[in-house]
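Hey, I'm writing a tutorial for new members on how sequence and structure tokens pair up, and I'd like a real worked example in the thread rather than a made-up one. If someone can provide the structure for the chain below, I'll link this post from the tutorial.
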Amino acid sequence: MGLTVIDLDIRNLPLEDFMRAMGYEPVNRNANLLTYESPYSAKGNIVVDTAINRCYDKEKPDKTYGGIYDLAHEITGNVNRSELNLFIASEMKKVREVKMYDVTANGKEADGKSVMASSVRNANLPKPELPKKKRGMRL
């Protein structure tokens, strides 16, 4: 079984960018609340709160906030995280560069059955230094 790594931090991806990648523009702006036509329903709207990077459906009375995986699930109807990662990455390729790597093990090529989304740290960048521990209180 192989592994495909997507160089994209999907969990922290702004929903505004994801909606733009799918071809949706806000129909209304109110401070940090953006209203879009629903990408998964012929009627209705969704509201994206850019301050917390969450969205909710205006048609649902409870206004439960969801993230990018919840939105992708509503659009595709799929609950498999690997397939949701591929869907989100394929949409984001329309507006930004997204790299995918097939990881090999024991000389065998990845067959693409598992997909992991993570930002790949550049090996040439120095490691961030941890802050020095402050002096504790002595009694």
